[in-house]
Amino acid sequence: MLDAKLIRDNPGDIKKAMATRKDDWDVDTFLVLDEKRRKAIAKVEQLQAQRNESSKSIGALMAAGKSDEAEIAKRTVRDINDEIGELETRMKRLEEETTRYLSLAPNLADESVPVGDDENDNVEVRRAGTPPTFDFEPQAHWDLGPALGIIDFDRGVKLAESKFVVLAGDGARLERALINFFLEELYKEGFKEWWPPSMVNPDSLFATGNLPKFEDDLYRMDNGNLFMIPTAEVPLTNLHRDEVLDASTLPRRYCAFSQCFRREAGAAGRDTRGMIRVHQFDKVEMVKFATPETSFDELEHMVRRAEHALEALGLAYRTIVLCTGDMGFASAKTYDVEVWLPSYNAYKEISSCSNCTDFQARRGNIKYRDPAAFKGSRYVHTLNGSGLAVGRTLCAVIENYQQADGSIVIPEALRPFMGGQEIIKALE
Predict the structure, then answer these.
(1) Distance between terminal CA atoms of the chain?
(2) Cα–Cα distance for residue pair 337/347, rounded to 1 Å
(3) Fewer CB near the last or first residue (10 Å), C or N of the chain?
């Protein structure tokens, strides 16, 4: 969430920032709501001061034998209390309305982010590896997987509905190998692993920015109190909600494997075939808590972790920085790492790493204390990134390591996690 004072003091700059983000959040609407809220607060404080003065006078009037004047003072106090009660009700409503509207404003883009309208204006910063060439007609994972008996789309639909998938045999084993490989790679980099719940409450989703704006993308439980997580970013970030961390413990680097659940309400018609866009998928997530002075260095470190995993798997990739018009709601700067997929003859996102600065920390009240540097406490910066999206990596391995006979060579980095197995053979 943005700082209300920042908006009040710099309305013109905020309007320009919203324009570059292609967001229709209206600064003037917020300022009107905020002014009404502040006036209500000022009026309540004024009446409270009058009530206190009148209350003090009652005892003195009674002691002086001025009972009639004391009764008038008592009636004045009662009238003021009634007015305060009405104003406090209005003030609470205005506070809720103002906070809700403020919660719909996206984060401000960092000055290093390229200005642009959409994904066509994203900027490539590097690429590594060479896409494979085949002396046969390569197949897509949605054909290879079923032919090998390791991906079953039909049974996914039978068990659930469209865009749910079943993995079988070596497909399930490969998925598990990727999860363990990613986690072990992050262990080497000093990440602390967590095993969080797969369901969270609305406060958790508000803190990360998923609520209230993106409720349609979430799976809500029937009792209305819990949601299935769209990513482990949500529970990991909320581990420290309403806490004050010691600066000496920062940066904190966390990771977790989780199943993720998304309705993908805003992605209708995109990537309709295969496993690239499904409603349930596996992901190893990275989350960091850092000081403002170090958070952008931590972002670069996070991106390199995702890139390193792809390099270890021998997969070609490119890294882009998203422009202002294509960034996620909570992000101040985002890098996407895209892996080469032969079925698309293009690079497809496999990791998205973002610095959310103090946007989520302000929503979740996550602060840090550094007595040697400043008094009180300040908001931390939070970061998140995929390390990696497991299902998409599985697709990339299948497509890039396919052989002419329909078999799949298992990358060397994954073989220790598959009992030394070197190849997934085609069905006889």
Answers:
(1) 57
(2) 9
(3) C
Element holding 338 (H helix, E strand): strand 333-341
Q: What CATH number is given to the structural domain containing 316?
A: 3.30.930.10
Cβ contacts of 366 within 8 Å, gap of 6 or more: 207, 237, 240, 241, 242, 243, 245, 289, 360, 379, 380, 382
298-307: per-residue pLDDT in tens?
999 999 999 9
Token digits for 214?
């993106």
Number of residues in the chain = 428
Q: Is residue 112 part of a domain?
A: no
Same domain, 49 and 123: no
| Sequence-ordered list of residues with C-beta below 8 angstroms from that of 315, at least 6 positions apart, any chain | 129, 339, 340, 393, 396, 397, 400
pLDDT in tens, 241-251: 999 999 999 99
CA atoms of 225 and 219, how far apart (whole Å): 11
- DSSP at 406: S
Would you say residue 37 lies in a domain? yes
Q: In angstroms, how far is CA 301 from the centroid of its own chain?
A: 18
* Domain of residue 62, residue span: 4-103
Token readout for 220 is: 């809500």
157's tokens: 């639909």
